[in-house]
Protein: Epoxyqueuosine reductase
Organism: Candidatus Methylobacter favarea
Amino acid sequence: MSTTSSQQMAALALQIKQWGQELGFQQVGITNTELAQAEAHLKNWLNKDFHGEMDYMQRHGSKRSRPVLLHPGTRRIISVRMDYQPESGAAMNRTLSDPFSAYISRYALGRDYHKMLRNRLQKLADKIEYEHGHFGYRAFADSAPVLEKAIAEKAGLGWIGKHSNLINRKAGSWFFLGEIFTDLPLPTDTVAAAHCGSCTACLDICPTQAIVGPYQVDARRCVSYLTIELHGAIPEELRPLIGNRIYGCDDCQLICPWNRFARITGEKDFSPRHKLNTRQLLDVFAWNEHEFLTKTEGSAIRRIGYDRWLRNIAVALGNAPASPRIIAALINRLSHHSEMVREHAQWALDRQLTKRPDETLFSKQC
């Protein structure tokens, strides 16, 4: 590559970062395609069966860690982050500490980020093509086998913390990631340095102790996996530990000291829809399937479907303090068409009745 073209690529890289910020990305970085260390970590994780039923984590072979196999011709990866924190940490903790409230992971309260990020990435690619000319590329937003956190770390967007999420010194960890694989020989950024130090707050706070060691998450125990990825019954021994978390879990982010630097997002698409950040468990448990589909339209929540939605809420209701209203709602779900929903509702009902022995007669009469 000539000196002139090197200078042109350096200038283009600066422009790409500026265009990215104009499109609403808080940061843009660039890295190469060498991910050998991340590949070794992934293989070790898979060999321990920490992925559970997420077969897609190994289905694509080396495509996940070797970008050129996923998109031939890839020489560089443009990595972006977009902040999504919709409310203060204090507000989140208030919901989490109220056993009658439904806690939904804050990334899922607004519009499905997949579509939104892909749209912005496409606009960035279009801008590059308009200003620079035709180039080879493919955009991703958690939509293909991509090691997005390892890529973002190499691109200088942050470091992978002990909870396996990416952390930025100035922005915490409440952000989404996206990528553009490209054949442009752009200059690369410096790999981000780690700053977790001796802190183990995320390991200590994990409700199911899914973070089995620094940088090692056993997804089979993770609340996010149990409430989103798992299709069948949630293991009984883990149900009491889930608390009132009905879709995902944010505990390891809420406790992370670096998130004191996180800022509330200005993106309206990430604002809570249908008051999903303040809903009561009994309220969302009462939704029929049409209401569920209507109120989760355009949301990432929809992917779990109505039956798993009820499954998750039933567990949370079983964990709540004794309540005649909860008992009545659970009894009502014992006739649900799904065996999975009926089983979880029965488990929750048994828990409620154990807390309130005097309700046994009420259960039998109903």
Observations:
- The radius of gyration is 22 Å.
- The chain has two domains: 3-182, 208-263+272-365.
- Residues 358-366 have pLDDT under 50 and may be disordered.
- DSSP finds 17 helices and ten strands in the chain.
